[in-house]
């Protein structure tokens, strides 16, 4: 097929990627083609990593940072420095590049909170990952998110909720470019404040023993070396109705959530929502709403 003037040879379209729901590779390619207009602003310019599972959930999966074997030579790459050197990573700057990666089994897209052009010390987004431990769920995450929204608002930051497509909730806030160390310190402070307010409900530590019955506010994804599942990406996890998606939601929906199923969306749901509501995260990329991290 041809996408934006680029010819792509798509393979194994009938392959079932999600066995319980029967979602095929063709359906996932169709989803990404439809959702690209609202997804691209949130991944373009950012070095991407992927969770690859060419055979679907029944096969092997792994995290891939370097360009997959077989990636077209026109897909842009950028050199990303690391502690032990540097690697080349794909930058998804077009629907064609997105479809090319999905065709190679890179179904789940992750990006950092900085762009390659600005560099690792110029984060333009803050992210908090609310991850429910055993005995808690998305509903509890929503209540905690509402309190975090209040705290962010008091500091002049606009909170944007995204269900993770797994179990929890991501909160983003657009910020003026700042170092990863500074935004991590601020995010950690927020997590620790909530832990002090609700010690039986919230934890800021990664220790698994502390997470039972509590929600982890993972502030560490603001580190320059970390990535977060990109808005609108399919997750390689299957819910009751099919694959989950990291889907933007409204604060009204967060407030009304009384069951995890209230905010569980399939790829088809997310396309329908985008067609009707547009990009609920449009403000995330606007310079007009960026604020300084206190």
TrEMBL record:
Keywords: Ligase. Transmembrane segments: none annotated. The keyword Calcium does not apply. Residues 24-280 form the DNA ligase D polymerase domain. Pfam families: LigD_Prim-Pol. InterPro entries: LigD_pol_dom, NHEJ_LigD. This is ATP-dependent DNA ligase. One of its GO terms (molecular function) is ligase activity.
């Amino acid at each position: 097929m041809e996408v934006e003037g680029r010819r792509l040879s798509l393979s194994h379209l009938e392959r079932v990627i999600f066995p319980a729901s029967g979602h095929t590779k063709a359906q996932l390619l169709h989803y990404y083609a439809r959702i690209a207009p609202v997804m691209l602003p949130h991944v373009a310019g950012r070095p991407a990593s992927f969770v690859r599972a060419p055979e679907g959930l029944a096969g092997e999966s792994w995290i891939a940072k370097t360009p997959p074997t077989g990636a077209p030579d026109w897909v842009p790459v950028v050199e990303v420095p690391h502690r032990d050197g540097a690697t080349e990573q794909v930058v998804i700057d077009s629907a064609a590049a997105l479809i090319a990666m999905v065709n190679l089994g890179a179904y789940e897209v992750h990006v950092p909170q900085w762009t390659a052009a600005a560099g690792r010390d110029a984060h333009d987004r803050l992210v908090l990952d609310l991850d429910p431990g055993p005995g808690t769920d998305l509903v509890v995450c929503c209540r905690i998110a509402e309190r975090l929204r209040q705290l962010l608002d008091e500091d002049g930051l606009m909170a944007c909720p995204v269900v993770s497509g797994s179990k929890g909730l991501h909160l983003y806030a657009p910020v003026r470019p700042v170092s990863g160390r500074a935004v991590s310190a601020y995010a950690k402070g927020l997590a620790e404040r909530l832990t002090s307010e609700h010690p039986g409900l919230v934890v800021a530590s990664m220790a698994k023993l502390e997470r039972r019955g509590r929600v982890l506010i993972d502030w560490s994804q603001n580190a320059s070396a970390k990535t977060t599942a990109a808005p609108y990406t399919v997750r390689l996890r299957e819910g009751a109705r099919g694959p989950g998606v990291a889907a933007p939601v409204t604060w009204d929906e967060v407030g009304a959530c009384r069951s995890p199923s209230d905010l569980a969306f399939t790829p088809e749901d997310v396309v329908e929502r985008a067609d009707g509501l547009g990009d609920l995260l449009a403000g995330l990329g606007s310079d007009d709403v960026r604020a300084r991290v206190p």
